[in-house]
Amino acid sequence: MPSLLLFLILVPAIGVILLLLLPSVFKNKSFLVSLALIIFILALMVSYLSFNKVFKFTFGNLPWISGTTNLFGALIDPLSLLMLTVVCIIGAIVVIFSTKYLDCDNKEHPVERGTAYYYIWLFLFIGSMIGIAISPNLLQFLIFWELTTLCSAALIAFYETEKGAKAGFKALLMTHAPGLFFFIAVVLLFIYTKSFEFNAIVELSPLIEIIVVLFLLISAWAKSAQVPFYTWLPDAMEAPTPISAYLHAAAMVKAGVFLIARIVVSVYQLPANIGLLIAFMSIVTMYVGLIFYFKQDDLKKLLAFSTITHLAYILLGLGLGTLGCGVALKGGLLHIICHAFAKTILFLCAGVISYLTGTRYISKLSGLSRRMPAVAFAFMVGVFAVTGIPPFACFWSKFLILTGAINMGSHLGVIFVILILAESVGSFYWFLKVAHKIFLGESKEEDMEIIVPPIFQWILIVLVILSLAAPLWGFMLLRGGVR
Amino acid sequence: MILTLALVILTGVILTTLTYKNKKLCGYIAFISVLIINIIILKIVFKVFSSETPLTASFPLFSIPSIGASLLVSVDKLSAIFLALIGLVSLIATLYSIDYMEIYKKESLVRFYPILLLFIGGMLGVVCVFDLFFFFVVWEFMTLASYFLVIYEKEDPVALKAGFKYFLMTHIATALMFIAGLILQSYTGSFSFTAISEAINTVSFSNPVLLHIILALFFIGFATKAGVYPFGVWLPDAHPAAPSGISAILSGIMIKMGIYGILRIFLYILPSTSSHSLIWGEIIATFGVASALIGSFSALIQKDSKRLLAFSSIGQIGYIVLAIGIGISLLKNYPVIATISVIAGLFHMINHALFKSLLFLNAGSILYKTNTRDLNKLGGLWSAMPYTTATAVIASLSISGFPPFNGFVSKWLIYQVSILGGRGMPLYYIFGIIAIFASALTVAYLLKFLSTAFLGDLPEKMEVSLKEVTLNMNIAQYILAFLCILLGLFPLVPLSLIYLSLSGSQLGSHLLQFSYLFGNGRNGVNVLLNGNPVGIWRPLFMFFIFLICLLLVYLISKSCGSKKRAVPVWYCGEEYPVDIVRYRASSFYLPVAEVFERWFLLFPPVKGVEKPETIYKILDFDKIFYYPFFNFVVNLTERIRKIHAGIPQIYMLWQIAGIFLAILILFSFVR
Q1: Which domain holds residue A426?
Q2: Is the CB of residue B318 less than 8 Å from the CB of residue B226?
Q3: B196 touches chain A (CB under 8 A)
């Protein structure tokens, strides 16, 4: 098992090194696809072997900080398995998608050279996300966290336009500056408890505990694009669409909520005020996201705001979990995996549309289902999955959060339920309207010669099947309880 | 057996997806799947009716223990009746669709038959599931499948708008039901119907106002699906937009799922000892009669054949809901009237499924042959499509309540219970009168439908070679017409079956004997109130008399020996072409059209909401804070940068100043 985990981190690292050394040789598509598949299979093996067991493995220490306790390693428990499956499976799919997406036939952004750097950053990112998912303490978490910020900024600016460079810089600043809060929190934790473990927070005095958790919250909010730090995510849509799908919907922004999830799960009794704060800010973020839907003409910006809203759902579940509600905690964690798959479908459909028609503006698209029936089908499945229509993915997690909110017993729970359902119906209305506009209705003359490359269709169908299986997998993982 | 059903549906879906290129083969595969489903349903129904307790099955694999939801399936006699109805109408509609789908040249069948099978599966699931959470799951799944079928013509903006409105309205209604279900679950921690019953019981004692809110939410949710007047305004757009076989299923059985929900909540789960039954029964009956009246009025002025039939559905659902409402409200005080009333409502529901599906199939046949739904352009189809005309006439007479067809029995029973129910609540006398008046309206709009479509002369623009529709479609129509006549002649059979299904309900706790209610004559229905007959109907006898009269007419006309001759219509000496003098659909009931538009605002206009720009300005954090802050920091650093002037002498000045500062600090600390 330790060797498997070692391979899991080493495979992307090897990919990075080989691509750095000999870019023209290893830019080969089959090499990249096989690397992706190896990561995918390794993740599956790890999941299979460690199902229902908790496994911890550490090595390496920094004697001047921690003495003889090991600092780096891996912790595999249901929560990290959840994150690991999301990261590796969607990562593999995104790599395979990118091999076709970044070529000269792309009508929106034709790319002819320089793709080696794309894959270097992408594999580095996959490796750092795996590091975050399996990290056993806050120090390793912090190190890989900052690495992901770097990769994200580099990948956003990939197309080397001015807008892209500005967006990348903005993302870097707006996630790194609050990341310093994370840094201070870790240092404070170490000063007071001499340990970096997640549950060391319990040993802090109440005032310091609130400060530490608050600082962690601030950095998590910035990373996950919540209010008031959300403005970097819509601009980050300058990135290539597979990157938007992976970093800014499925993986990197989930790192923030994953941090809070780790804290909530490891610390048994967080102060109730923190829970209320998380819940309140997540409701505010939900509605801010919803309000911005109606203004967007750019499909990817709309999906970015939808991501912001759904991360708020996850945080709401976690906040309610802090207030004592186990069902809502489960719902929030399940939403991580369900939303990742559903949003990836939507983003990759947007990618295929922009690849084939050269535009991603909703007002310019119409009647596309005639030539792209598979893409239309996947997009509709994605819309229903994201807005919570059974039996698709996010319904199950949303319903768990709703049940948890009501079971809290107070009137606050009913208010939360009404607010969540109102937002859910509002986003359903808008997304269905957008889907009708883009895919149904009259087709345009210039779209009549479109032929969808088969690999895109296969990827989308695989994703649809995975998104149906995702809630089942999530339920199996969380069945034994997370604590 | 449930697993076999699921398996059959799944295989059907896969096979039809694979064979979608070959239209006829795909249709027949779908038909055979539905046939097998029907056989399994018949077995289940038979088993349920021959045993005392409902059939149950549970699938613990699909359970979520943390919220108390588990997939429990329970088929009691009420579910069995619905299952039989769903099976029958789906079978006939699928048979019809095999040939009907030829009119869609551009649309692919892969979006039709697989989704149709999933839709049927969804409906079957709705009536069998015994757990509120999974009920919601299957309910929304059924709505999802029907949405795809309504927007089948995906390039037609009218169909798209109709489907969108339908899905949005039912989704909002379901979200309201979620709230109610969640509140109930929090009392007992489980979603199964038995736990929900206990929860309702608890809430009715501890917090009656909350129970009113919960019941209101459930009622709105189910009434939206059923098409009751204010909530069902999606019906007139969605039913015409779908292909005709689907319209038949939507109008025939899917809106009955709303009725099923209302029955389950108000009759089977709500305890009869509470005062909530009384109040809610009256509210439901009021909505019902409003639906009957306004639906029928609106149908009078329609020019589109399917839209007319959709409004007619709203009207007839009003009757069903009226009867069920009266039953629920009189539960405690007049159990006899309540029982008869619920039985009448359910019987009308079955009848409506039969004759409304038949009418939609007829409208579909007209569309198939003449390619138009506009009643202004149709006419004289009796000569080209005699069999379709015959079945349309049978359906219209049934729906209007003519003896000896099935609609007569159910409508007559509904009038009886509303007048009799006036003892319990005087308002019901007025409801009865309105119901009878709405029946007259029903005759009126069906007269419009029949005479504009079928009677008269063929318009010249239509093909002279207009022929009857194909055999499959005809057989489908015949079966329904035959069933209309059969249920009309032998009404006691379905009435007794429905009566048996009430045993699980709140009525069943002191259910009176069937013969006490309806008499035990084989050849007719006696309505008995405390042993005294208040109404008698002998259908076979009347049918016999009717046949004798027909025979007399035939004999008399034969014996006179008069010849029949066909002459053109007399227009006072002028010769007009048929198209100019035809009495078009728009000319019918003009006074009603004028009054109606003024008095009933059926579809309130929805103003478009403009995007409020101020909110976006307030929420633009970039402009308010981040960019100014960033610029401030950059300006600050620009100013500090000016220290590096590039002139070596300035740097030496800084160094000397620094040395002075260091010496100062050293001296102030070293003391």
Answers
A1: 271-483
A2: no
A3: no
Write out residues 628-647 of B within 8 Å (CB-CB) of A. Answer: 630
Percent above pLDDT 70 for chain A: 98
Q: Are A136 and A74 a contacting pair, CB within 8 Å?
A: yes
B620 domain-assigned:
no
Q: Give residues with Cβ within 8 angstroms of B373, minimum separation 6.
A: B240, B304, B305, B306, B307, B363, B366, B367
Residue A136 lies in a domain: no
Q: How many domains are contained in chain A?
A: 1
For residue A263, is it within any domain? no
- DSSP annotation of B129 reads B
Instruction: Kindly calculate the radius of gyration of chain B based on its CA atoms and give it in whole angstroms.
Output: 33
Q: Which residues contact B393 (CB under 8 A, 6 or more apart)?
A: B450, B454
In a domain, B599, yes or no: no
Which one of B63, B178, B203 would you mutate to disrupt binding with A, by most A Cβ within 10 Å of its Cβ? B178
A294 touches chain B (CB under 8 A): yes
pLDDT at B53: 80
Interchain pair A409, B151: CB under 8 A: no
Beta-bridge partner residues of B527: B535
Strand partners, A361: A298
**Residue written as tokens 């303490």?**
A137
What is the pTM (predicted TM-score) of this model? 0.91
3-state SS class at B64: strand
Contact A421 B175 (CB under 8 A): yes
Nearest CA distance, B186 vs chain A (angstrom): 5
Mutation target among B146, B165, B171, B630 for the A interface, most CBs of A within 10 A: B171
Give me the half-sphere count of Cα atoms (radius 13 Å) on the Cβ side of residue B145: 25
Whole-angstrom Cα distance, residue A285 to residue A272? Answer: 20
Higher pLDDT, B596 or A166: A166
Q: Which residues does A179 contact at the CB level (< 8 Å), separation at least 6? A: A145, A146, A149, A219, A222, A223
pLDDT on residue B120: 94
Instruction: Pick from B67, B70, B115, B210 the residue to mutate for testing the A interface (most A CBs within 10 Å).
Output: B67
Look at B622 and A406 and tell me if their CB atoms are within 8 Å.
no
Count of structural domains, chain B: 1
Tell me the CA distances in angstroms from B608 to B170, B535, B605, B611, one per residue in order.
Answer: 21, 54, 9, 10
With respect to residue B458, please indicate whether it lies within any of the assigned structural domains: yes
Average pLDDT per 10 consecutive residues for chain B, totaling 671 residues: 83 85 87 93 90 80 80 88 94 92 84 92 92 93 94 89 93 94 89 89 87 93 92 90 92 93 88 80 93 90 90 94 92 84 92 94 89 83 86 92 87 90 88 93 92 80 68 87 87 84 72 68 69 77 88 88 76 74 80 74 59 76 83 91 84 92 89 63
pLDDT at A321 over 60: yes
Answer yes or no: do A390 and B622 touch at CB < 8 A.
no
**Structural domain boundaries, residue B329:** 275-560
How far apart are the C-alpha atoms of B122 and A3, rounded to whole Å?
A: 48
Residue A382 is assigned to a structural domain of this protein: yes
In a domain, B572, yes or no: no
Q: Is the Cβ–Cβ distance between B113 and B24 less than 8 Å?
A: no
Q: For residue A7, tell me if it sits in a domain.
A: no
A363 touches chain B (CB under 8 A): no
Asked if B178's CB is within 8 angstroms of A402's CB, the reply is: yes
Q: Which of B141, B179, B615 sits opposite A417 (nearest CB)?
A: B179
